[in-house]
Structure formats: structure tokens, C-alpha cells
Amino acid sequence: MVKLTKTTLFKASKPAAETVMDKTTRVVRKMLIEETEQREIRTARLRKARLEREAVTPKETATKVPKGTRKKPPAKAV
After folding, report:
1. How far apart are CA 6 and CA 12, in angstroms?
2. Residue 57's closest CA among 49, 45, 65, 67?
3. Which residues, in sequence order, are CB contacts of 61 under 8 Å at separation 6+?
């Protein structure tokens, strides 16, 4: 009788070849990751520039200009 071991009892199966769908999924995920990284870099750069610009420019005080009296529309003739 054959002695049962890991190698004789559980035979290693060959890994399945990458299908076209697997390849497409891998490529698309890679593209999405790259686009996300570029977007985050651009957002960080723009945020930094905005914060620097806000730090340099003085804050404008909002002064309310009193508005004139509101004119009523002319009455309609019946």
C-alpha cells in the first residue's frame, strides 16, 4: 500500500491561466489607481496654493450697503 503524505494525498493543481476578463480587470484597476493618485496630488497642490493665497490677502470686511425702499409694482387695472 502507498504511504499517504501531503504530496500524494493532495495533488497541487496548476494555477489557471489569466483570462481576458481577468487581464482587463487588472488593467482597469491599475488605471483607476493611477488616476486617483494623480487627482489627490493635484487636489493637495491646489489646496496648498489656495491656503497660501488666503493667508496673504487680507480678509475683506463685508459692509452692508443699505438698500433703498422697495418700489411696489403698479396696480393692475381691472
Report:
1. 10
2. 49
3. none
